[in-house]
Amino acid sequence: MYETNYHKAGSVDDAVSAMGNAEDGKLLAGGMTLIPTMKQRLASPSDLVDIGGIADLSGISVNGSSVRIGAATTHAEVAGSAELAAACSALCGLASHIGDPHVRNRGTIGGSIANNDPAADYPAAMIALNATIVTNSREISADDFFQGLFETALDDNEVITAVTFDAPSKAGYQKFPNPASRYAMAGVFVAQSDDGVRVGVTGAGADGVFRHGEMEQALASNWSADALDGCSVDAGDLLSDMHGDAEYRANLVKVMAKRAVAAA
User: What is the C-alpha to C-alpha distance for residues 232 and 230, in angstroms, rounded to an integer?
Assistant: First the structure.
């Protein structure tokens, strides 16, 4: 690893200030992506600003149908929350299958969303749940937040503080994991609410997470796995790599979507 300066932020304001004073600062929460990247010498930030200990960034609250999850809440905490399970058990299930126990006990929902790995699980959920990404300065809809491979709407030194969404009436998530990394080769989160149906797809898109409009329309008319039989998935928009080509992923997306609906 390269030499770096370490800062332990006591508040969000402290973190923003430290980032503003750094030549090339990076926020550190669980560090599940950043630390391995630094070890491989693919990143060499001048400063690490640790926000993992900021109390205001952790915790889950459910008020009626309104759900709020602090950005520094770990995957294990999301998976194990009885309060969240009553509001959206699909999100708990999603978190319970991220990585391995070490990753789940250190990694955070905010870090995953901010990194926007094209095979990460949470982006599909945020899209399908029509979530809002709350930062220290504004609120961003999930549709506007995710902007391509590892790209988000976050400005320099902007800090995610929480995600919020309204509990769906039905929701389900299924993924086909890479057997080594547990990242999704294709993952589909489906959600039904008073505003309609939304389908978020991760792990398969050549440009990252995306919504599948045809599936949304089919499920809005008939919430059943069979309703997806006539839907098509365009392989031309999907990723091909050593783990699977676009045609293979197109089939996986449809299969995972049907399984997600059945699970919901």
Answer: 7
pLDDT in tens, 18-56: 999 999 999 999 998 898 898 888 889 999 999 999 999
Round to whole Å and give the CA distance between 11 and 18.
11
Residues 6+ apart with CB under 8 A from 64: none
Name every residue whose Cβ is closer than 8 Å to that of residue 93 and which is 6 or more positions away in sequence: 79, 173, 263
Per-residue burial over 213-244, b if 16 or more Cβ lie within 10 Å, else e, is eebbebbeeeeebebbeebebebeebbeeebb
The domains of the chain, with CATH numbers, are 1-54 (3.30.43.10), 170-263 (3.30.390.50)
According to DSSP, the residues that pair with 79 across neighbouring strands are none
pTM of the entire structure? 0.96
